[in-house]
Amino acid sequence: MLDPKDLQRSPYHLNRRRLLAGLGATAVGGSLSGTVSAETMHHSVADAPVANAASQLDSVPHLGRHQAGVVNARPANGMVASFDVLASNADELEALFRTLTERIAFLTVGGSVPMLDPKLPPADSGLLGPIVRPDNLTITVSLGASLFDDRPWLAPLKPRHLQRMMRFPNDALDADTCHGDLSLQICANTQDTTIHALRDIIKASSRQMILKWKQEGNVPVITPGPDGRAESARNFLGFRDGSANPDSSDAAEMDRVVWVGAEEGEPAWAVGGSYQAVRIIRNFVERWDRTPFGEQERIMGRTKMNGAPLDRREGSEFEVPDYASDPEGKATPMDAHIRLANARDEASKANIILRRPFNYSNGVTRSGQLDQGLLFICYQANLERGFIAVQQKLNGEPLEEYIKPVGGGFFYTLPGIRDASDYVGSSLIAAARGA
Amino acid sequence: MRISGLVGASALTFVLTSGAFAQEASLDLVEPIAEYKIYVSEKLAKLVEDTTAFTDAVKAGEVDKAKELFAPTRLSYEAIEPIAELFSDLDASIDSRADDYEKAEADPEFPGFHRIEYGLWEKNSTEGLAPVADKLLSDVKELEGRIASLTFPPEKVVGGAAVLMEEVAATKISGEEDRYSHTDLWDFRGNFDGARKIVDLVRPLIADKEADFLKTVDANFETVDTTLAKYKDGEGYVTYDKLTDDDRKVLAAAVNTLAEDLSTLRGKLGLD
User: Fold this and answer.
1) B271: nearest CB among A119, A203, A210
2) What is the helix (H) or strand (E) element at residue B50, kind and residue range?
3) Mean pLDDT across B6-30
4) Which residues, at least 6 apart from A232, have a Cβ–Cβ distance to it below 8 Å?
5) How far is B75 from chain A (nearest CA, A)?
6) Please, what is the end-to-end C-alpha distance for chain B in angstroms?
7) Over chain B, what is the mean pLDDT?
8) Residues of A in contact with B20 (CB under 8 A)
9) If DSSP states are collapsed to H, E and C, what string results for B140-190?
10) Residue ranges of A 116-155 with Cβ closer than 8 A to chain B
11) Interface of B with A (CB under 8 A)
């Protein structure tokens, strides 16, 4: 187990002092408010970028009624990795789940990396050095429909709404970045931590599953406003994304929107889980950047600068648009993205989903355009009523000219790991054995 | 220099804190290495013989016969690839792929087995292949000569078992090696045989101490054998496109696991 002293024995303290000194100097100098100017920081070229010293030690509990990585705030980096699973019986699947649980327990809590005989390959990739710090890491395990469909002993236990992601009209799905038997959503403060976790798990599970695809992304880090309220991050279209998300700190709301309860009619083993929809949505950013500003706002239904609804342009992103007073769409066009997605009426409340997206930037297409977009991830207690219903409302929206979903999949996020003696997916294995 | 000092220090720390150290390299390896050299020589003799027949067919314009000889000829090369790769110039001219060249198949520098494979399958012709065939045969003979006078480094021989699996895992399991002829399963066979030969040669040295390890490795080789056996066709194998998705996954997992496990073989034998 981890000695907290080990975790704190780090070069970051030095950097943190430097950072604080820099802030002090800035305040005295009275330069740009709240920012650290380059002149006040004394970096050597060889110095690593200054991280928030506290963030290395941030941790999200991996045990609980629900898995971590769903209702807790997004850290700056996220990734979805999808795997094909080899298991052909309950014992083999249990072995995989136990391997995952063991790695999750180590990686999210942190600790010293075991040192082996130097003649052997190292136990750890070493990306994070001899001591792994939690760095806000969460690893969320979810299962795809194919895991159930391809295994007669598991098929009767498939969650009611779990299905292979269908093709929506605007999709151009690439088989190489779709579906999978098992998804891992890996999130952390830094990209190195997510990559370290993925490599660790691949090494530990090579006989049990094979990597099929992965997509990494990140969320721009934002300084809270003067009122202390964090604003929503911007996506690669330059708009705030996530403004109307349900309050993930409201446990009752999350029970209603995100978590599968006993009343959903799902198999008993699935209670405490959630449906995960992943979509890799390419943005045609060059074209978007050549679209008039006013049109961009009408397509999205929000002001670009502050994220306010179009019927209260001077407001903030947190204000609720009043569509009832705008029945013809004069302020907010009827086919604006946010209006189609959520009409803000009684009926739409059933379709609320918890969005947890990351921006991705992959490279350059054959046509010489940027391959970037949104790694869209959302969670909901009912996939049909949630993502599928919302996407159906969005089908044909004007935004489609600028976006192209190319990958992703539907998965069922397993219930939580209850305590240190439990493992992820234990209720499913028990049900498979009991059947 | 500072870095190597640090590595030394951490290794020392390890020695002091842990008793589980691998055994030192011993003279016991002399015999397996000598045996392996005989194995490689036999494979090379076969490779020269088969390549002669193959390139003769290419030069005689016998497309069908050349196609028939392509995969079996490569089998011997694939089995000894870790040793052949010690001579990177020859490996490139014998076995490189179109991707290694800027203009791919159209690149005049694209040589060797796969250049001929491209002509035979994609163009159904031997046109322009005679000089490529001559060069291939002379390269293969050159390889035989160079290996004959080579002292086999033990760590390369033992490490070769993992290298073969790494190659399959990284660039072969997808069927990209023999992309024109789709004879990849033959190559797999060669790679697995080569890896298994190495494991078998050193087996007596670790049989007692590493019984569990050998059991796992054998089980994975067994998985590979049973899976490949489903695709047997006469002396060889059906084309790669017949491999089902499920069996490809089974092979991929077995290969990845063999690569993981065999990567410890050098250390287990005390080789650095």
Assistant:
1) A119
2) helix B30-59
3) 45
4) A240, A241, A242, A243, A245, A307, A317
5) 27
6) 19
7) 89
8) 117
9) HHHHHHHHHCCCCCHHHHHHHHHHHHHHHHHHHCCCCCCCCCCCHHHHHHH
10) 116-121
11) 7, 10-11, 13-14, 17-18, 20-22, 220, 249-250, 252-254, 256-257, 259-260, 263-264, 266-268, 270-272
Q: Which residues of A touch B21 (CB under 8 A)?
A: 117
Per the CB < 8 A criterion, the answer to whether A237 and A300 are in contact is: yes
Tell me: pLDDT of B237 over 50.
yes
Per-residue confidence (pLDDT) for residue A228, from 0 to 100: 66
The answer, yes or no, to whether residue A15 has pLDDT greater than 90, is: no
Could you tell me the two tokens for B67? 């196609």
What secondary structure does DSSP assign to A84-99, as a single string? EE---SHHHHHHHHHH
Is the separation of the CB atoms in A139 and A177 below 8 Å? no
Q: Quote the distance between the C-alpha of residue A395 and its chain's center.
A: 23
Q: Which amino acid is at A53?
A: A
Distance CA A294, CA B155 (A): 67
pLDDT, residue A6, reads: 52
- Name the residue among A115, A116, A119 with its Cβ closest to that of B266: A119
Residue of A nearest to B155 (CA): A119
Compute the radius of gyration of chain B from its Cα atoms. Answer: 20
Chain A and chain B share a number of CB contacts under 8 A equal to: 50
> Quick check: B14 and A208 CB within 8 A?
no
- Give pLDDT, residue B37: 95
Q: Which helix (H) or strand (E) holds B77?
A: helix B63-79
Quick check: A432 and A153 in contact, CB under 8 A?
Answer: yes
* A35 compared with A105, residue with greater pLDDT: A105
pLDDT for the residue numbered B183: 96
Chain B residues within an 8 Å CB radius of A118 = 7, 11, 14, 272
Whole-number pLDDT of residue A43:
43
| B-chain residues near A84 (CB < 8 A) | 249
Q: Look at A210 and B256 and tell me if their CB atoms are within 8 Å.
A: yes
Of A84, A115, A119, nearest to B272 by CB-CB distance is A119
| Cross-chain residue pair A121–B21, CB shorter than 8 Å | no
Percent of chain B scoring above 70 in pLDDT: 90
Measured at the CA of B118, the angle between CA B117 and CA B124, to 5 degrees, comes to 90
Average pLDDT over residues B252-262: 95
pLDDT at A40: 39
Residues of A in contact with B270 (CB under 8 A): 119
Q: With CB atoms and an 8 Å threshold, state whether A207 touches B14.
A: no
Nearest to A119 among B249, B256, B270 (CB): B270
CA–CA separation, A13 vs A19, rounded Å?
A: 10
Separation in Å, CA B79 to CA A186, A246, B211, B229: 39, 59, 25, 18
> Which uninterrupted H or E stretch holds A184?
strand A182-188
Above 0.90 for ipTM, yes or no? no
Return the SS3 of B101: coil
Inspect the interface and report whether the beta carbons of A207 and B259 lie closer than 8 Å.
Answer: no
Is B253–A207 a contact, with Cβ atoms under 8 angstroms apart?
yes
**pLDDT in the model for residue B272:** 82
Inter-residue contact A253 to A245 (CB < 8 Å): no
* Inter-residue contact A344 to A335 (CB < 8 Å): no
**A207 contacts B267? CB cut-off 8 A:** no
Residues 6 or more apart whose CB falls under 8 angstroms from that of A398 comprise A298, A299, A333, A335, A336, A337
Which sign does the torsion angle of CA A316, A318, A324, A327 carry? positive
Report whether A120 contacts B11 (CB < 8 A): no
**Per-residue pLDDT tens for B202-216?**
999 999 999 999 999
